[in-house]
Amino acid sequence: xxxxxxxxxxxxxxxxxxxxxxxxxxxxxxxxxxxxxxxxxxxxxxxxxxxxxxxxxxxxxxxxxxxxxxxxxxxxxxxxxxxxxxxxxxxxxxxxxxxxxxxxxxxxxxxxxxxxxxxxxxxxxxxxxxxxxxxxxxxxxxxxxxxxxxxxxxxxxxxxxxxxxxxxxxxxxxxxxxxxxxxxxxxxxxxxxxxxxxxxxxxxxxxxxxxxxxxxxxxxxxxxxxxxxxxxxxxxxxxxxxxxxxxxxxxxxxxxxxxxxxxxxxxxxxxxxxxxxxxxxxxxxxxxxxxxxxxxxxxxxxxxxxxxxxxxxxxxxxxxxxxxxxxxxxxxxxxxxxxxxxxxxxxxxxxxxx
Length: 354
What we know:
seven-stranded parallel sheet
């Protein structure tokens, strides 16, 4: 094969799927394979990197990144070129029915499009075995696991001024979670667990929640919960931040706590490990697979269990050191060179590359 072009709903900066798509293009072009990116929407910062899918002339295999419902998905369903699916997980729409029903409809549409595309796909790629199982259930006969490309060299310079400011104001254990404010990310459970932690273990602890919002009403409810629990002075909703500021939060925090109910991979836990930050995580969906043996995994997320786990990580230097070491080893398994090799092997296994 001499060409494999990629298609995705939206190409945006500071987005894991967008970065993954750009990395795949680099790998394919490095193998002498023609590869361009076509998208339903292209952010102004990346206009030089992609074109509208309506400009595609057709006739060569297509690699579609499935992540949400969109007009592009319906368009691809009408094509007859050889199709490969790269599945990045679609959050079950019920997580958004209360908070952002319009997003829930797009997610439901995405799952319907995926079910329609899967039987005719010649092969599938998935970020995790969790996602791969879903593709297999939908009828993709040849599915390989190729993780999201993670390349710390592209994260930019650390905002040392912010890092130093965060450290200077430290009085207790600092929790961090990174992810868009959304019900499936369960920031409400994090806040409730943190409230108990402050009462029982560390009255000077802080919680930083970094990430934009996927549902305005959910953020409003979260802010009300923070106020009701009298946590306004110690829980920070940082919003979407620059790469340098994100690094500052990772570098200043004591523990990364993830209580998410649904993840197809969860890149932030790997970012935390890269920064040498120990991870405590609820063992749901793809999270156990992503963290491997490099985190404290919780089978249940009752708030006392969460608090006790965080307290142990904060106080037990041997455990903390072990988690940091295991974390660095885990990050190495997701290095861009290894992921590139897995991608090429997957494409060769299904006969896409010869």
